[in-house]
């Protein structure tokens, strides 16, 4: 746009790929990497409502997973330049990046890789209670099928594509059935892809604290003003995720109401808002 003086984000070198799956302390890891001085550490929570990010991630899913009906076909994998379209200003990535783990290990050959493996039972329970229920069900279906198309949003559809493609599933039911196989495949692929470069991969365990992470990255353990080591970040990601989803849904309904007011007096949008609020037990 003429007269737009907004500067593009600075180009940075990707230094760390934290490829532990979503719901393995990725938010805490993103905060830890930020504390260690890495710039613009990417986590999916920070991009809720950023339609351009999710459009790129949806396209990345189309380029990566053959099981998707929208698959671009062999030979059309995402290029380094395409990945840089979303992460070119980041020195580290976490969370949703893990879905494309093996591809990113190849795309950023100089980046170090951190892999957090959580107990499958605890992990799958958390995924079902937070992520899957936020993407499938009466309320999520209403937003994905009605609200988002009216607003031109692709956040929900992109998230669904990414999960289904990653799990080689065609629907929510098959996603649940394939979850363990996808979990196992993820860890084996990351380890196999990193095996060609000894010392590139850190198998990190939740609760290990700063020492192994800092040794691997060549950073000093961060200390506070009292000279004592800072506590390792421990963020409540599940609570933050739920709140982000609620905030985004409210924002969408407000925007939909504003868009529809000139045409139908807001009746449809208000009705949709009333239905959603009542389903949440607010009225």
TrEMBL record:
It comes from the Eukaryota. This is P-loop containing nucleoside triphosphate hydrolase protein. It comes from Cercophora newfieldiana. Coiled coil: none annotated. Signal peptide: none annotated.
């Amino acid at each position: 746009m003429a007269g737009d003086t907004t500067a593009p984000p600075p180009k940075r070198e990707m230094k760390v790929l934290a490829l532990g799956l979503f719901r393995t302390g990725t938010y805490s890891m993103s905060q830890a990497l930020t504390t260690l001085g890495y710039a613009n550490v990417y986590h999916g929570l920070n991009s809720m409502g950023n339609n351009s990010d999710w459009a790129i991630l949806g396209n990345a899913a189309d380029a990566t997973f053959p099981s998707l009906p929208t698959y671009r076909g062999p030979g059309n994998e995402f290029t380094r330049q395409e990945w840089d379209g979303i992460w070119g200003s980041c020195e580290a990535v976490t969370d949703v990046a893990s879905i494309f783990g093996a591809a990113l290990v190849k795309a950023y050959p100089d980046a170090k890789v951190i892999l957090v493996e959580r107990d499958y039972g605890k992990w799958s329970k958390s995924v079902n209670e937070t992520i899957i229920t936020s993407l499938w069900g009466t309320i999520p279906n209403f937003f994905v099928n009605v609200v988002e198309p009216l607003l031109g949003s692709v956040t929900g559809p992109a998230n669904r594509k990414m999960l289904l493609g990653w799990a080689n599933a065609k629907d929510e039911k098959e996603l649940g059935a394939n979850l363990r196989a996808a979990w196992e495949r993820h860890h084996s692929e990351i380890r196999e892809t990193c095996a060609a470069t000894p010392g590139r991969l850190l198998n990190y365990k939740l609760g290990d604290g700063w020492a192994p992470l800092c040794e691997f990255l060549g950073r000093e353990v961060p200390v506070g003003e009292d000279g004592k080591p800072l506590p390792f970040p421990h963020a409540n990601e599940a609570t933050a995720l739920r709140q982000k989803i609620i905030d985004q849904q409210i924002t969408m309904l407000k925007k939909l109401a504003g868009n529809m007011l000139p045409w139908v007096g807001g009746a449809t949008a208000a009705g949709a808002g009333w239905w959603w609020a009542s389903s949440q037990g607010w009225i």
